[in-house]
Design brief:
The protein is of the alpha/beta class and 270 residues long. The chain contains ten helices and 15 strands. The strands form two sheets. The protein has an eight-stranded mixed beta sheet.
């Protein structure tokens, strides 16, 4: 019997037009009525998923969200942090110097300053628009080395970012969790932070066993949680490496893939 379902947002829960289908809403609600905890697992800050949390009525005292790719596990109603695995200002300064060398843009999510960047760009604007948050363009040298930085992102045109990735110092992969969450976004998290760790921390908080967990995703930043879960599910539109890691492949995000998994493995079997 599955007790916890963690669902990625873009390319998984959301259709191409960024909406949630009625069938998927019903499946999620029916699972929650059976006592299953359903959480959104996203690279976004909690502000970036607030309208979807409202749409799914996920603001009760029993609801959680995995934000910043699992770096934060939060109660949705109070934003209280159940678990936090963050970077520091010194990491931002270090990665900024590397981004300058590679010729790519960079921004970060700071606990103190919000979305912060030394230079605004197209994809920082996109990040702000997706999450409905403001951009703080500033001299980042004022950020102290010990300040909390939740995650850092190199952002740019797909070909520019791809070329930069090929030139990244190998030490970065030892120092950080590095995930490409979209063609334009390369994310750097604390080495011990990823969606898999986030799901594991929440499962332990809830007293749920690994084999009682379902995770669903489509992109590289979903790999850790798909590998962790008792049932790791890849969307029909998922990256090949995600499909290879999954226990099960469902339909695409535009064809109710999430709903079909919940119906098959929870509603028909519990």
């Amino acid at each position: 019997m599955y007790k916890l379902v963690a669902i990625d947002m873009d390319g998984t829960l959301l259709r191409s037009d960024k909406t949630i289908s009625d069938r998927t809403k019903k499946a999620i609600n029916d699972a929650r009525d059976k006592g299953v905890t359903v959480v959104l697992a996203t690279g976004r800050p909690i502000e970036g998923v607030s309208r979807y949390l409202e749409e799914l009525d996920m603001y009760t005292d029993k609801d959680y969200v995995l934000s910043y790719n699992g770096a934060f596990v939060q109660k949705t109603s109070t934003k209280d942090v159940i678990a936090k695995i963050a970077l520091k200002g010194e990491d931002f300064h270090y990665l900024r110097s590397i981004s300058d060398d590679l010729g790519v843009n960079i921004h970060a999510f700071s606990e103190k300053y919000g979305l912060v960047t030394p230079k605004n760009s197209t994809y920082t604007e996109l990040e702000a628009n997706i999450n409905k948050i403001d951009i703080n363009e500033m001299d980042i040298s004022v950020i102290k080395d010990d300040e909390v930085i939740v995650k850092i992102m190199m952002i740019d045109e797909e070909d520019v970012l791809t070329e930069a990735i090929e030139k990244l110092p190998k030490e970065l992969y030892d120092k950080y969790t590095v995930v490409r969450s979209s063609p334009h976004f390369l994310e750097f998290l604390h080495k011990e932070a990823n969606k898999g760790i986030g799901v594991e921390l929440l499962a332990k908080h809830l007293g749920v066993k690994r084999e009682e967990v379902i995770t669903l995703g489509d992109a590289g930043n979903d790999l850790h949680m798909i590998e962790y879960a008792g049932l790791g599910v890849a969307m029909g539109n998922a990256f090949d490496e995600v499909k290879a890691a999954a226990n099960y492949i469902t339909d695409s995000n535009d064809n109710d893939g999430v709903a079909k998994v919940i119906e098959k493995f929870i509603l028909e079997n519990n």
